[in-house]
Amino acid sequence: MELGLIGLGKMGGNMRERIRRAGHTVVGYDRNAELADVHSLRELVDALPAPRVVWVMVPAGEATQATVDELAGLLSAGDVVVDGGNSRWTDDEKHAAELAERGIGFVDCGVSGGVWGLENGYALMYGGSPEDVARVQPVFDALKPEGTFGAVHAGAVGAGHFAKMVHNGIEYAMMQAFAEGWELLEAAGPVTDVREVFRSWQEGTVIRSWLLELAVRALEDDEHLEKLRGYAADSGEGRWTVEAAIDHAVPLPAITASLFARFASRQDDSPQMKMIAALRNQFGGHAVTNTETRP
């Protein structure tokens, strides 16, 4: 299969490599010419045989909207656009309607896996018509982890990003729980080696998980997280999760509290947020703020 891929940053670049390893052809475009295979979206579209599949992997919001707008003028009826960024699900319906006017299909795909996806595979949650999803299926199969699980057709357009949004909301709460436990262990007297306590939980406990493994990795690099300032950003999906909960009258106290804790981190040097920042850096390569730097 031949695929156009727009956005070759931390996620997109590794995704291009994984798809190529599976035997598919990828034509990549990025504003950074050193990363790109072609120099414009026009060149990317012209390099692909019709009907085309073009995957957009750029920041949500204005960048995604501008890319979809430009593709709408370049692609032809029968082509399919995939939005694999962290777009809000409500934007998906808008993009799908815009492209449908020209006979172009649309699939939204929530992607999880961070900087580890190249080797481990990416968890994929996608939404769209069965026909459009089928067109992209070889790429989904190339990106997903080995085995039965790791990819799901979540529903119609918007369902993929909605599922990924809730996934990230849960992630917020899980990271917050690890961070709170770590701070309490550090503050209390009886435990003398917090890092080894965390390490011991990796086997035989009900909280063993990949996040726990990443917490241990972070503590191996900086045992007391003294190099980090207690500041953690939020990508927007935690906010959208809480907003959706309000819209549907679904109580989300843990996820909401974890979002508000990140807001608190911007006012004080929170020890808990040092762990949150360390975990986000470990699994996604997200930037951290060290003790000498202010945001």
Automatic annotation (TrEMBL):
Domain of life: Bacteria
Residues in 6-phosphogluconate dehydrogenase C-terminal domain copies: 160-287
SMART domains in the record: 6PGD
Regions annotated as coiled coil: none
Keywords, in A-Z order: Gluconate utilization, Oxidoreductase
Pfam family, one: NAD_binding_2
GTP-binding recorded as keyword: no
Stated family: Belongs to the 6-phosphogluconate dehydrogenase family. Belongs to the HIBADH-related family.
PANTHER family: 6-PHOSPHOGLUCONATE DEHYDROGENASE (PTHR11811)
Identification of the protein by name: Decarboxylating 6-phosphogluconate dehydrogenase
Source lineage: Bacteria, Bacillati, Actinomycetota, Actinomycetes, Kitasatosporales
